[in-house]
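Input structure tokens:
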């Protein structure tokens, strides 16, 4: 019997299949689940299959010096992925423009339970000229075959798009009260076939800055974990504003921007340490998390007061 168009399986059948794998123990963090940066790694893997379905095969891109670049990514995390947890990726197109497209990606476990969703604004990228160019006709034709309406479960929930990010300097960031929470060089193995740092490693700079940010907010992350309390990212929006290349030096400045009963809004700014240019801005809705019940929990009064004293309000 034909599958009804309203069934979950019929929706999945419309999507581009691709990534299929498992969460490794070394990819999991102090909270006992897959670290945020590795979700972005899976997204990059799924993007290979999306491009291939859009008449952008690896050999074609190499021959024509063309590829794609992420401009903004909005991610919702629906379910924890433990070590050994299976993940299956699928994708489709939501919006199609002259030089950009919005891509829906979703990852489910082996039982088809939703794990996380991405809405990614990508641009068609000339890897020689380092600029956006119009899509080829073959790509546009293929894209319309895979176009869907954005599902409600992947639409922004508590965190809107970052929109047009204004010019922000490192000096202004320091003066506002953001704290330097990360510094690193960019290695060749962190860069992709398009000649710049992969999105996963932009986010890695944010996740590595987080413990330093918590300390700046008056909280020791390790002490909290020993007491059975931690934090998890529920939603994140990252704007990629400047290319980061092999050999560059980057610095992360971070703070808390908003506080409510169980969550905070964290903002990370990644700068090129040599030029001072803003390379990426990430806003994260972070949830106070009970590591035993695996549920959200209200901030303790003393911790909330300490954050309020140190935060940089929007």
């Amino acid at each position: 019997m034909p599958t009804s168009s309203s069934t979950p399986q019929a929706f999945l059948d419309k999507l581009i299949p691709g990534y299929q794998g498992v969460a490794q123990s070394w990819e999991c963090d102090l909270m006992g689940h897959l670290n945020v940066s590795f979700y972005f790694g899976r997204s990059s893997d799924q993007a290979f299959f999306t491009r291939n379905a859009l008449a952008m095969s690896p050999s074609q891109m190499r021959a024509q010096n063309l590829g794609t670049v992420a401009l903004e990514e909005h991610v919702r995390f629906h379910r924890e992925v433990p070590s050994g947890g299976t993940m299956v990726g699928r994708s489709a197109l939501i919006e199609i423009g002259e030089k950009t497209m919005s891509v829906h990606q979703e990852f489910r476990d082996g039982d088809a339970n939703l794990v996380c969703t991405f809405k990614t604004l990508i641009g068609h990228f000339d890897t020689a000229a380092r600029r956006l160019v119009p899509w080829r006709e073959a790509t546009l034709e293929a894209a319309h075959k895979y176009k869907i309406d954005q599902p409600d479960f992947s639409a922004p929930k508590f965190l809107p798009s970052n929109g047009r990010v204004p010019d922000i300097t490192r000096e202004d960031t320091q003066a506002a009260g953001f704290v330097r929470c990360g510094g690193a060089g960019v290695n060749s193995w962190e860069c992709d076939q398009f000649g710049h740092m992969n999105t996963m490693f932009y986010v890695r700079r944010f996740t590595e800055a987080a413990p330093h940010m918590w300390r700046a907010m008056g909280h020791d992350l390790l002490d909290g974990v020993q007491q059975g309390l931690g934090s998890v990212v529920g939603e994140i929006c990252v704007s990629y504003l400047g290319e980061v290349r092999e050999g560059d030096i980057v610095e992360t400045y971070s703070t808390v921007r908003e506080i409510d009963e169980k969550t905070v809004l964290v903002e990370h700014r990644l700068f090129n340490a040599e030029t001072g240019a803003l390379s990426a801005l990430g806003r994260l809705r972070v949830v106070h998390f009970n590591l035993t019940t695996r549920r959200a929990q209200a901030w303790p009064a003393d911790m909330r007061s300490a954050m309020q004293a140190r935060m940089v309000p929007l």
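The chain has two domains: 1-155, 157-314. The chain is about 25% helix and 35% strand.
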